[in-house]
């Protein structure tokens, strides 16, 4: 069990000992420390989060309920299955960062996972790192935190997305959020390993202070706008495309990992104009892209909103996969008029 | 980059050379083989799957469309984001199996990931392996394959789940399915590493032949009912609980990994009677459970159906996270009657 024990143990050791160098020596330590240390750590994170939620002001009575919670919200915000997906992604990321910190400590090269300008998904070319300090780049919404306050309000209204209400949420919804399970440990590992934690979000730069306060409030800060917090409007960005900001971040940092809930959190190439759902799936499963998932690029689940929620019947269910249930024979129908004596009884039509 | 290169390379080597023993020597091989070999392999898998879909009979024209495809179906079956989650889980599982096969080859103990009777999630105890042949246990629906034919029919009808139609689907829907991205490679790695591939599904035992044919048809077979295929009705099971079948499988095999889209695919303990959404989330993020995700237990996304789709407003959005948008001031209202000359103009009420 050495290989598997090693990473979990090294992660735990990093977290416990607060020293990236620990990643190497403790490898020899065997399995003993693994569960206990990592447990203590997980317990701490959960207790802190639970305490924070409890500390929130008492909420007014909920508004009268509309039809109910959309299934995608039940899944993402309330299912244990989604918690497992979150932890699977973030435990993998924590172990990945242990490997990165080990490479850094022993002087091995580490590479950037940010595609360079002019690169394609078929011919990927990554930006050089050239001695820059290491960083990990996170999206914020439904990657670092769950926007429970905003989505709960939307669910109660039963209305479509409201951009103005979202802008209000960016400014005022700084506390009604929950950290995505597992992230607190990843951030701890990153910071102890001297890997900078950077956020690249499509929240607006004009709301940077509120967003920074929100991240601080849930223990993901501190962040500095323009250094470890990048928002829509920064680096000349005028829309939701993130490559420009990624390149600005990569000009200063060696981006060793990225985490998001949308393909656009990894490269704008996935969202080429007119890209069909099939094209986006093909791109995500491309020859090189396939090797990135869980290996530099870390995806979090979000069926609630985003660029993936597209497609008509034939996009989602290719005609070649069309299935028609077996017809069930209809029961003999009673004739309107009583049958004439001796006439044959009506027979159910064969279908 | 050694550590990270090693696993991907070893996986690729296993796949290429068809020999579990390859896992060890090739580690020294460096990065060269990594992308090329793994690429070739991924390309093969995708080509085979594409060819299979093309080979399906031409489908009749789709029925007139109802309101549209539910977002959760768009996400799971048509988004590149879900493809990334699938590949992230299954590339991780493939690398995990390389570690297992390495442990087996060098004579290290490997442990079962099946909880023993009487164990709890807080006090986990796993079944002994004691020299049994290694196996990996997969759920089938939305874990091994996507039920495009059935779900597409359901989406067109816009009706709720129909158990009779599902039973018909088990018997007749043997071709209108798609393999979950990444699984074909995992199965190849497992079989080359001499790790048995076992399926534990809640499909009915009486439809075992059709289910086996379906798995064969998409290249996931062969399976033998009662040995590598376990269904509802086997091992005395009378409902969707799977522990009994897991223990029957574990009596013959050392179950080194499990994969599913529902918490019940890993332990029935997650579905204790009356378990609230909050309790299931807490259980999934428990001290020991946390360490299993991506490390013996591998979760696949499924927001379309299942035990996770539960909860009212206050379950999904805890009252402590309640947020109320900032009221927008109402514009000055024009008075019904023209104001009397000299009377103060009406002023918008301050809120």
Automatic annotation (TrEMBL), chains A, B:
Coiled coil: none annotated. Pfam families: Acid_phosphat_B. The keyword Glycoprotein does not apply. Residues 1-22 form the signal peptide. InterPro entries: Acid_phosphat_B-like, HAD-like_sf, HAD_sf, Lipo_e_P4. It comes from the Bacteria. Residues 325-351 are annotated as: Disordered. SUPFAM superfamilies: HAD-like. GO terms for cellular component: cell outer membrane. Residues 333-351 have a biased composition (Low complexity). Keywords: Signal. This is Acid phosphatase.
